[in-house]
Amino acid sequence: MSIAVVQENYCLSFINQKLTDTFGWTLEEVATLIQVVPLVFPNQDNFETGEKKFIAWADAILASTSPTRQFGPNERQILCKDGSIRTAEVTATGIGNTILVLMNDITKRKIAEAKLEEYAIKDDLTSLYNRRHFMTTLGLEFDRFKRYSIPLSMMFIDIDYFKQVNDTHGHPAGDKVLKALADIAGNTFREIDTVFRIGGEEFAVIMPEIPLIEAVSAAQRLKKAVETTEFDLGNALVKMTISIGVSMASGAHATPNLFMKQIDNALYKAKNNGRNRIESAP
Question: Is residue 201 annotated as part of the catalytic site, yes or no?
Answer without folding.
Answer: yes
